[in-house]
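Quick one:
INPUT:
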């Protein structure tokens, strides 16, 4: 199913994000996890694309399994980092051969250990160039999602410019947006006002990541620049030394965030599951979506 049609029919659309196992681990190691996610009946599952294209075949293989074997709609992330046009075309062809209809089209992060990576050497420097390429090839059969940044992209010098580039990206042919994680819903509501004011009308589904460990939050905010509200700092101070207490507090925090978002009529909830079905189940139960 083309996911944009789902957003027209259902609110909120509940989706999970998972990542493929590392290359030194057999791909089968994720199948048991997928079985458990299947029981939670998400509307779709998205599969990330390893930085620098390291696990590209795994992304397609797992997205295909989710759709064709488990009967759950899937979305494959696709980044431009280090890829020629021909490689991107081969990946798109492979996706179609696997019956995949939904892509999250991204520029991507620099490959590991190459923080100064020069994106100008890519066939597509920005995500909107990748999106234009897919659309130009008359690939209107693909539903294309793109990334949005509630607090601005980490590399962006001015938030205003980031929003204008987002609008340009959407106008190039984006069907819906998935946001970077955030911990303060007020920032998301402000972001919705700003995007509406510049004429972005496609569905915007918020990315929510439960915090399971105190050190996880430092790494994540370093990578994506999300700000940490005081109540999250207090929570980490209180529970950070005990893994199980911290996990429970993180689940409670994410559940409260999601309840408030749903009460405010959001288009969807995109849960960054960290491949943890048990915690995902607890969140869905807390918010009343599972018995
Ligand atoms: C929901 C979500 C899922 C993700 N999944 C993955 C994944 O699976 N694999 C992975 O490697 N990464 C993933 N990322 C991270 C993402 O690849 C990085 O944040 C990356 O740095 C930017 O990708 P983008 O597609 O948003 O880039 P772009 O939209 O190209 O933007 C990148 C930067 O360039 C600026 N910019 C855009 N257009 C122009 C222009 N025309 N001129 C000048 N500046 C411009 C933007 O303001 C921004 O600062 C994900 C991010 C999100 C939010």
């Amino acid at each position: 199913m083309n996911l944009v049609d789902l957003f027209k029919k259902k609110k909120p659309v509940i989706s999970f994000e998972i990542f493929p196992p590392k290359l030194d681990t057999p791909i089968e190691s994720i199948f048991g996890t997928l079985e458990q996610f299947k029981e939670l009946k998400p509307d779709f599952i998205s599969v990330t694309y390893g930085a620098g294209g390291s696990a590209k075949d795994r992304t397609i293989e797992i997205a295909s399994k989710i759709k064709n074997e488990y009967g759950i709609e899937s979305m494959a992330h696709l980044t431009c980092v280090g890829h020629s046009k021909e490689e991107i075309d081969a990946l798109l062809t492979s996706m179609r051969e696997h019956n995949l209809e939904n892509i999250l089209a991204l520029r991507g992060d620099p490959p590991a250990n190459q923080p100064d990576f020069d994106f100008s050497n890519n066939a597509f420097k920005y995500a909107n160039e990748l999106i234009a390429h897919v659309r130009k090839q008359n690939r209107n059969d693909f539903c294309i999602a793109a990334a949005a940044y509630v607090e601005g992209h980490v590399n962006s010098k001015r938030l205003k410019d980031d929003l204008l580039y987002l609008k340009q990206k959407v106008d190039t042919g984006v069907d819906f947006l998935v946001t970077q994680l955030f911990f303060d819903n007020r920032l998301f509501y402000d972001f919705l006002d700003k995007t509406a004011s510049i004429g972005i009308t496609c569905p915007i589904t918020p990315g929510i990541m439960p915090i399971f460990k105190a050190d996880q939050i430092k790494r994540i905010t370093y990578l994506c620049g999300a700000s940490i509200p005081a109540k999250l700092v207090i929570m980490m101070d209180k529970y950070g030394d005990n893994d199980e207490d911290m996990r429970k507090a993180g689940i409670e925090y994410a559940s409260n965030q999601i309840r408030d978002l749903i009460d405010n009529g959001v288009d969807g909830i995109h849960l960054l599951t960290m491949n943890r079905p048990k915690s995902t189940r607890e969140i869905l139960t807390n918010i009343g979506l599972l018995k």
